[in-house]
Amino acid sequence: MDRRHFLKLTLCGSAAVPAIWLFTGQRSDAEASTAASPIVFNQLGYLPNAPKLFTLREQSATFSVRAVGGGTVLVGKPGASVEDSASGDHVQVCDVTPLRQPGSYTFETDVVKSAPFEIGADAYRHALWLTMRSYYGQRCGCNVDLGGGYSHPACHLSAEFHKSSGRTGPSKNHGGWHDAGDYGRYVVNSGISTGTLLWAWELSNSAVRKIDLKIPESGGKIPDFLAEIRWNLDWMLTLQDEDGGVWHKQTSENFCGFVMPQDDRLASYIIGTGSTPYKSTCATADLASVAAIAARCYGPYDDSYAKKCADAAKRAFAWAVKNPDIIFKNPEGIRTGEYGNADCRDELLWAAAELWRTTGDEQYRKAFESGIAYLRTEGGLSIKTPGWNQLSALAFWTYAMSDRKNASPQLLAQIRESSAQAAEALAQNSRQNGYGNTLSLSDYVWGSNCVAANQSLQLIVADHLQKKDEFRQAAAENLHYLVGRNCWDISWVTQLGRRPFEHPHHRPSGADNIPAPWPGLLSGGPNARPADPPGRFMAQRPPMQMYRDDQAAFSMNEIAINWNAPLVFLLAALNNE
Ligand SMILES: [Zn+2]
User: Fold this and answer.
1) In the annotation, is 577 catalytic?
2) Whether residue 5 lies in the annotated active site
3) Catalytic one of 156, 505, 506, 532
4) How far apart are CA 450 and CA 164, in angstroms?
5) Tens-place pLDDT, residues 13-33
6) Which residues fall within 8 angstroms of residue 565, CB to CB, at 6 or more apart?
7) Which residues contact 160 (CB under 8 A, 6 or more apart)?
C-alpha cells in the first residue's frame, strides 16, 4: 500500500507517540490541499534567490523536488534528524535553496508528497497587501467594506468623558482602529503599531509607496499606505488635551459580547488615570514619538498636517518631561485592556530620539543621550526586542538612522555593535531551531507570533545598520514559520496560504455569519501559559504545541494591530528587495 494515501493524525505529537494513520483511498487534490502535511514550508512560497529550508517530520534518506506538470528538478539528502525543543518533534531540515527557477513545484520523499509550492519574485506581494489592508477592516467610526461581505456601517460615533479623565460630558472623539478582537482603542498600543508602520514607509518605501489598498482615500493626494495610517493617527491626536498630555484610552467600561461593531451599544469613554493630571506619561510620550515620525512622512504630501503633527509631538514631549511617572492603571469599574507600564523611560527616549531626528533641535538629542545611562551594559548597550511596553531599541535605532551630523560617533558605533550582537543571537536561534524561527523557549508568551515578527524587525534594522545577509535571512525565516513552517502546518494569517487558521478571537469574524474570518489578520499564536478557558484545559506540552484555533482562546488566537504591524514591516522589507 502506498503510504501517501494515509493521513497522519499526530501532527505536533511527540515522536514518542505512535502515529495514527488513516486510510483515505486515493487522495483528491482538495484533500491534499487542506490536510496537514509532514513536510512544512512557507505556504506563500519563496523568492527565487532566497534560502529555502523545509522541515520534514517523517524520516527519509532522500528527497526530490518535481515541477508541477514536469519532471524532477532537484534531488537531495535531508539533514540529520534533530529534536526541536520548542515542539518536541524529531525533524530533518531539507535545503531546497539551489532551486531558483520561478514556477510551481512539489516536494517528495518515499512517504510524503507535498501540496504545490511556488517560487517567484511576487511571492509576498499579495500578503503585504492583505495584511496592510486589514487595518481598513479594523477602522472605527466609518463605513468599512473590504468586499466579500466583510463590511459594517460606521460604529462608535459618540463618546463621553469618563470621570477618571478629569472632564465630564460628551466628547468629539471617534475614529482610529479597533485595537484587537475587541472594539477598544488604546494610545499606547496604537503608538508602537502606527510607529512600526511609519517605519516601514521610511525603510521599505519602494515596496509600499504605490500600494493600492482600495480604501476610501485611494486616488487622493496622499499615498494609500499613509492614508490608512492617518486614520488611526488622527484619532490619537484627538486624545491630546490642551496642556499637551494624552489620555490613555477610549473604551467602554467592559468588553461587549461577540457582536458587530455597530451593534455595540456600550458607551465609549475617554478614560484617564482618575486623579490630576489625568493623562498618562507612556501614552503621551508614545504620541510624541509617532507624531514626530509622521511629521517626516506626511511632509511631502500635506505640509500643514506635518506641521500639526510636529507641534503635537513637541507639546506631548514637554508634558511627559514635566510629568515623567504618571502610571496608568484601570480606574474603578473599568475592565478593558490596561496597557499599564510602570516604566516610561523608554517611551521618553523614543520620543526624544524621533523628535531630534525630525527637528534637529539639540534639546532632544541631549535628552536622549543623557537618558540612556540605565541601558548601558559592561559590553555596550542593552538591545531588547521591541514590544508595546519596550521601546528603547526603537530609540537607539532611530538615533542611528537619523543621518544627523552631531550624533555621537562613539554612540553610533555602540548602537551598531550591540544591535549586531543581539541580531546574531537571533540568527543563531534560527539555525538551531527545527522550524527555523528565531524564538527562544522563553519567547512563547501571549502573542509569541508578534515576538517573532518583532525579532524580524530587529534583524532587518540590524541589517540596515550593519549590512549582513544572515540577519535578513533569519528575518525571513520568521515569515516562513508564521505562514506554514511550523509544527501545525498552519498559516497564522487569516485567508493566506494553503491552511490558514480559521477561528480568531475577533468580534467581527465571530458575529458576521460568514464562515471565513476577516482577511489578513495575524494570530497571537502559541502561548506556553495560556490564560483562556480552552487553554486552561490543555495538558502542558512543548511551547509551540500550546495553541488552539479556537475563538474562545483569547490568549492564543486573538488578533491585534500591534501584532500585524511588524508582519507588515517584514513583508514590506521582503518586497523591497
Ligand atoms: Zn468602532
Assistant:
1) no
2) no
3) 505
4) 31
5) 333 222 222 323 333 433 445
6) 192, 193, 194, 196, 197
7) 169, 170, 171, 267, 268, 269, 270
